[in-house]
Specification:
The protein is mostly helical and 181 residues long. The protein has 9 helices and 2 strands, in the order αααααββαααα. Among the domains are: 69 residues, no CATH class; 44 residues, no CATH class. β1 and β2 form a beta hairpin.
């Protein structure tokens, strides 16, 4: 039979053990973030609920700004490592290449063929020497726009004259060859 002393319930609830928000706690969360921790584990590690933490950030915009800066700094470091490894892989595929097995008609391995990635080499060249290899826009933009206070009828008459569809109001008839001169 169970004894009453073994059934004692803890008098401190889970909510009572949670910490209250303070500047020191916030500084520890920011330090966790800068050292590479994910956002929610960095908050929970300090013994405060995420909802309370974010509620305090909405009340204090200066802390929210510091929090975003810490996340940005953490992500910048993480992305630098990822970019370095991606650049190394780009170099390996584009410059060093890789061996691909070659088989005869019976399925026997007869050797290896060195393969390279043209696309990786192109991207490497674009990033290393953009002034030579970067994509350049090829659009031709014509900028001969004239603004006038003519009425719609006058504009249409002018176009008809230029296209040779109407007589020139100044006196003669205009042909298509004279309009292009």
């Amino acid at each position: 039979m169970l004894q009453p002393s073994s059934l004692q319930v803890s008098k401190t609830s889970v909510l009572a053990t949670k910490r209250k928000f303070s500047n020191a706690l916030f500084d520890r969360v920011v330090k966790n973030l800068i050292h590479g921790s994910d956002t929610h584990p960095a908050i929970e590690k300090e013994g405060i609920s995420k909802s309370l933490f974010y509620l305090e950030l909405t009340k204090r915009p200066e802390l929210a700004h510091r929090f975003k800066d810490a996340q940005y700094q953490r992500d910048k470091v993480r992305n630098a490592k990822r970019i370095e490894s991606a650049e190394a892989e780009l170099h390996r595929r584009g410059v060093d290449g890789w061996d691909e097995p070659v088989f005869d008609i019976k399925g026997n391995h007869c050797g290896d063929k060195r393969r390279f990635s043209d696309a990786c080499l192109i991207f490497m060249l674009k990033s290393l020497k953009p002034e030579v290899f970067a994509d350049k826009p090829q659009a031709l933009v014509q900028t001969n726009v004239s603004i006038s206070n003519k009425s719609e009828a006058e504009i249409l008459a002018g176009w008809r004259v230029q296209l040779g569809a109407a007589p020139d109001p100044a006196g003669g008839t205009t042909s298509v060859s004279s309009a292009s001169e």
